[in-house]
Design goal:
heterodimer, A: alpha+beta, Ubiquitin-like (UB roll), DNA polymerase, domain 1, 2 domains, 5 strands, 32% helix, B: alpha+beta, Uridine Diphospho-n-acetylenolpyruvylglucosamine Reductase, domain 2, Uridine Diphospho-n-acetylenolpyruvylglucosamine Reductase, domain 3, Enolase-like, domain 1, 3 domains, five-stranded antiparallel β-sheet, four-stranded antiparallel β-sheet, 14 strands, 23% strand
Chain lengths: 158, 298
């Protein structure tokens, strides 16, 4: 099979509030662009097929899987990674993750935080069942979910 | 876990996408990508190795949810599951558009969309992309067949419509011809009297092992559509007197569900999970839940 010559694309996008210009191969995922080209290694590549949630970032404020979002599709858009999460809610969530021992190895944590911020903004009064259902797209393989759910719950208005 | 190289074209319009598909060389394998939530994993796993990707997700005309003059609804192919999940309660199209959906339709769309995978997938995945991909375990193929939807395809020869019930031909096979793009989903304007849904997944958000949708618009019979059958969605027609008899009986909920399941199991096509008694039981059980759920709705 003849491999086509690499298709290089020039992209302009905003990452954590800063305008960035990057050249990348068309096949580059947003996850690899963030990690390899922009050196923002907070976004973790886990399963790389959309199942584990470790690479979840915000794209124009909405959570997406960076591993199955093409970088080329993000031209002109705003990306927020775990490094760029800020504000009173995020401060409370970070403190709660610490207090509730919601991480151990930390591999899933960037995706957990991004998904939890989105959940808390959409459903500030979510109960435990809703938190568990909405966080089911983020897998943790060591600490377990009890501390994670407890940490998120402590940031609800319930 | 990286895709094989491909060329990427972000289509500016539907016409541009169709022209790009038409200009492909004989050695090209061209794929249309919208949200990429089905194609993305397949690219990463190299289950597909297209040479050209035509990205249609920025085409504004494909991202609208609009009322039709006949009272129906047109949903652009690139409308995300999250957009449908977030339809305002009360059936209005949006805060800016006070026109209302046909009775019950927004509730069904909201429920089906909200049950797909996870929010991060729903924020990118599109209704048209899911349908064009035609994974039998996906939620839209059976739901749109049950809703009596029409699929609008556009190609070099112009526009044509295919009934959703005839759209999926089997595993990853659809009525889309080479060079065509799925442009919109058209939903009928007739109101929905009652509806119900059954879905079985071992883990929240994963692909379903059994799926069923029952839409009741009045009429003599009641139809329940089964998804996740490994091929195209399947309809099972039930006699209204039987359905009303079971739904209105004073038997326990468990007994009513059992009677419904046994009736559906007797009509379950032999091609569904042949030789797998557990899977066939699951399909019949989930379909029974959809019908009982529909009858319990006001």
């Amino acid at each position: 099979m003849n491999a086509p010559a690499p298709d290089l694309i020039d992209l302009e996008l905003t990452v954590n509030g800063t305008a960035r210009q990057v050249r990348a191969e068309a096949r580059t995922s947003l996850c690899d662009l963030l990690r390899d080209a922009l050196h923002l290694t907070g976004t973790h590549a886990g399963c790389e097929h959309g199942v584990c949630g470790a690479c979840t970032v915000l794209l124009d404020g909405q959570p997406v899987r960076a591993c199955i979002t093409l970088a080329a599709a993000c031209e002109g858009r705003a990306v927020t990674t775990v490094e760029g999460l800020s504000g009173p809610l995020v401060d409370r969530l970070r403190a709660a993750f610490h207090a509730e021992h919601a991480l151990q190895c930390g591999y899933c944590t960037p995706g957990m935080l991004v998904s939890a911020v989105d959940l808390l903004e959409r459903k500030p009064e979510a109960g435990e069942d809703e938190i568990r259902r909405d966080m089911s797209g983020n897998l943790c393989r060591c600490t377990g979910y009890v501390g994670i759910v407890r940490a998120i719950r402590s940031c609800t208005r319930g | 876990m990286k895709p094989a190289p491909f060329r990427y074209h972000r289509a500016a319009s539907l016409e541009d996408a169709i022209a790009t598909l038409a200009s492909a060389g004989p050695d090209d394998d061209v794929r249309v990508i919208a949200g990429g939530q089905s194609l993305g994993p397949m690219l990463n796993l190299r289950l597909v190795r297209p040479t050209v990707l035509v990205d249609i997700h920025r085409i504004e005309a494909l991202r609208a949810i609009e009322p039709l003059p006949d009272g129906g609804v047109r949903i652009g192919a690139c409308v995300t599951h999250a957009q449908l999940e977030d339809l305002p309660p009360g059936g209005a199209f949006s805060a800016a558009n006070p026109a209302v959906f046909p009775a019950g339709l927004a509730d069904v769309l909201r429920h089906v969309a909200g049950g797909i995978a996870y929010r991060a997938i729903r924020c990118r995945g599109t209704i048209g992309g899911s349908l064009a991909h035609a994974d039998p375990a996906a939620d839209w193929p059976s739901a749109l067949a049950a809703l009596g939807a029409t699929i609008e395809l556009t190609g070099p020869a112009g526009r044509r419509n295919v009934a959703a019930r005839d759209f999926c031909h089997g595993l990853f096979e659809t009525a889309i011809e080479p060079g065509e793009v799925l442009a919109a989903i058209l939903l009928p304007g007739s109101g929905i009297r009652r509806w119900g849904r059954g879905k079985h997944c071992r883990k929240a958000g994963e692909f379903a092992h059994a799926l069923a949708v029952c839409i009741d618009r009045g009429g003599d019979g009641v139809e329940v559509w089964l998804g996740a059958t490994g091929a195209a969605p399947v309809a099972i027609a039930l006699d209204r007197a039987f359905v009303d008899g079971v739904a209105g009986s004073r038997a326990s909920a468990a007994l009513r569900r059992t009677r419904m399941r046994e009736r559906i199991a007797a009509s379950l096509p032999a091609a569904i999970a042949p030789g797998d008694a557990y899977a066939r039981h699951l399909h019949a059980q989930v379909a029974a839940e959809a019908v009982i759920d529909a009858m319990a709705n006001p």
